[in-house]
Write a structure and sequence with these properties.
The structure is a single chain. The protein is of the alpha+beta class and 300 residues long. The protein contains 8 helices and 7 strands, in the order ααααααββαβββββα. It has helices at residues 33-46, 69-73, 76-80, 107-111, 128-142, 146-155, 201-226, 293-299, and strands at residues 176-179, 185-188, 241-244, 251-258, 263-269, 276-283, 286-288. A 5-stranded antiparallel sheet has the order 3-4-5-6-7, with no helix packed on it. A hairpin with a 4-residue loop joins strand 4 and strand 5. Helix 1 packs across helix 5 (128-142). 11% of the residues are buried.
Length: 300
């Protein structure tokens, strides 16, 4: 790979207290792990420990509980090429304050309950669950965590000593930010962009900011469009309780709260003590929490 002499340009540094970016700045790896995961699978196939066309239920017997084509016919090729039809429903991977809502040990069992949103092998559909399953397979056949396997078999041989799937060390590390509605930056612990020299970072950041705001505005409008003036039929106290998903591995705890104005419902997700949402009436006995981009990204 050719190495460019200039990777970064900076018209104006909005964070004057932070060191400037340079060719040695470390960025959060984010979905670049997918390329490394695919490479790890290829190495294991070459060693005869995995096979591209072997059914993944041979590696993960629990996955065979799915009776559809996804459960009975999915191969490693299908996972890595995003052809399973599984949704990109990664809501459970992280919530407020960057907390995971369930342990990784639940990934395989949860995917046996996920409803497909596209026909099996008919089209590409990006889904984090595909690579979550691939990770489980790698760790099953190697007896090692994905991070350690990649470190020992890919990064160290390539002398990529500063690349890691864990928390980066040192001071020359890019920090993730979310923009409030007024454009002010708020630091968050969130994956950042990679350091591909072909990317115009400043232009890409501006585009991502604009697209993100548009997407959230569209989502908010869609949510508000479905809201009606119908009030709950029963006292709020009646809706209290613990509500479980179909896989019985995630619980929503609903309790009532009181203010001077009126009582309300609070939803706490699983055991994540900080992931709490105030629910409001949406349509009769249906409740929702109003979308608030700035509050969720910048404050939580």
């Amino acid at each position: 790979m050719a190495r460019s002499s200039i990777h970064f340009t900076w018209a104006k540094n909005p964070f004057p207290l932070l060191p400037p970016l340079n060719n040695n700045t470390i960025y959060r790896i984010a979905s670049l792990t997918k390329a490394l995961t695919s490479s790890a699978v290829a190495l294991l196939v070459d060693e005869g420990k995995l096979a591209w066309d072997l059914l993944i239920r041979e590696y993960l017997p629990l996955f065979s509980h799915r009776a559809d084509d996804i459960g009975q016919k999915t191969t490693l090729k299908d996972l890595l090429s995003h052809r399973t039809g599984l949704p990109n429903a990664d809501y459970l991977f992280g919530q407020q304050y960057g907390k995971f809502l369930m342990p990784r040990t639940e990934i395989v069992r949860l995917t046996t309950f996920l409803e497909p949103v596209r026909p099996f092998r008919k089209r590409f559909l990006y889904s984090q669950w595909n690579y979550g399953l691939a990770t489980e397979i790698i760790e099953t056949v190697t007896g090692m965590s994905l991070g350690i396997y990649i470190q020992d078999h890919i990064l160290k041989p390539l002398r990529m000593c500063r690349t890691t799937l864990g928390k980066p060390e040192g001071e020359n590390v890019a920090i993730g930010y979310a923009l409030a509605n007024d454009g002010t930056p708020h630091q968050i612990d969130f994956p950042n962009m990679n350091d591909d020299p072909e990317i115009d970072f400043l232009a890409l950041a501006k585009k991502a900011r604009a697209n993100g705001l548009i997407a959230y505005s569209t989502f908010t409008a869609a949510v508000n469009k479905g809201k009606t003036s119908k009030l709950p039929r029963l006292p709020l106290k009646v809706y209290e309780g613990r509500y479980w998903n179909k896989a019985q591995n995630l619980c929503l705890n609903i309790v009532t709260g009181d203010t001077v104005e009126a009582p309300f419902l609070l939803m706490r997700i699983g055991g994540a003590l900080k992931s709490v949402y105030r629910l409001e009436p949406y349509d009769g006995d249906t409740f929702y929490w109003p979308p608030d981009r700035e509050k969720e990204l910048c404050e939580k």
